[in-house]
Fold this sequence. Notes:
By secondary structure, the protein is α/β, with parallel strands linked by helices. The protein has helices at residues 2-20, 44-47, 53-65, 68-71, 104-113, 139-149, 166-180, 196-199, 232-238, 265-277, 293-299, 302-308, and strands at 39-42, 75-77, 117-123, 153-157, 185-188, 206-208, 220-222, 228-230, 251-253, 282-284, 317-322, 325-331, 337-343, 349-353, 361-362, 367-368, 376-380, 385-387, 394-398, 403-410.
Amino acid sequence: MKIISSIFFLIISITAYSQGNVYKQQATKWEGLAMTPPMGWNSWNTFETKIDEELVKQTADIMVSTGMKDAGYTYIVLDDGWMTKERDANGNLVPDPEKFPGGMKALVDYVHSKGLKFGLYNCAGTKTCAGYPGTRGFEYQDARFYASLGIDFLKYDWCNTEGINAKEAYTTMSNALKTAGKPILFSLCEWGDNQPWEWGEPVGNMWRISGDIYPCFDCEYKHPENWSSWGFMKIIDMRKGIRKYSGPDHWNDFDMLEVGNGMTYNEDKAHFSMWCMVASPLIAGNDFRSMSKETLAILTNKEMIAINQDKLGIQGFRHSDENKLEVWAKPLENGDWVITFLNRSEEKKQIDFDWQKHNIKDEINNIETKFNTVTYAVKDIWNKKQLASTKKAFKAAIAPHEVIVLKLTKNK
Length: 412
């Protein structure tokens, strides 16, 4: 009996201890900071770690003077390379005094004085992707530092994270930002490796769905270090079935824009149009100081931006694909739609689209065009032309890598 009693006591003891280990970390992000896809500028695509306070000030000034701020671009985000290579004796991050001699807080205040918002970068791992101090083990300390600077946006990368659980790592940082007490938009840059769309909504305001973008239409750029960057259409094609996870305050992020970074005019226009169609954050990545009038016109096309910023927040979808001529659709508020024709081929195509033969339906949101019973006014957004209604077939020639974006307004 003593043996049985001892075994019984041991079982009860083990059960009691195991029952004590039931705490589950719950994410508590700052809600309501991104009810439409965030818009702004990030330093990485053009400058990588070659950043300084003069670049930031010039970028802020240009965002205001060119009308980009008025068009909706709000955030200036410094990516990797803003800090020194080591933390200080107390474990604090140190903004590089050579790059930012006036201090980071003064720079944040300058950006705020222009009516803009300021963002910084770090990483969930022990080191950032460029080898600067990562946040692993310093989440709450770093969050308090960001709050003391008054920043508004944190991009959080995924390098040097061996052995870390992605959901838990990002949840920890999300909670640290909330605890620090300053509303900071949390941008998860985990590259889609751990399906952040499935768990990201309570954790962050946006999450990357792919590795880094590259300024090309449909290529894969293989880096010597054995990783790849992707043309914007490669990213569009990369994930299947994720549009249902995107919406107000929880966006699928297709990465920063490469508009103005070396592609053709048609490709830049297609790139920007597709980011608007899929409701991706619009984070410019070019050098504003040398920006052409054509690039500025693309980035500030207010009717395209309105498509991206539509309050329904529905990610668009591919309706059809015939011989590399794709038709994309996106429902808007008030019963309106956007239809985009995209020529992925290397030759000119002819469009002959009879609206009456195409009932376009968003199966996830149960919204459909009903062209047989509903008539829409049609406007060509890029050419700024009012066209015939959907009672008449749409016919046009479309060049290689070009888009034609049509706004369909429901007749009252």
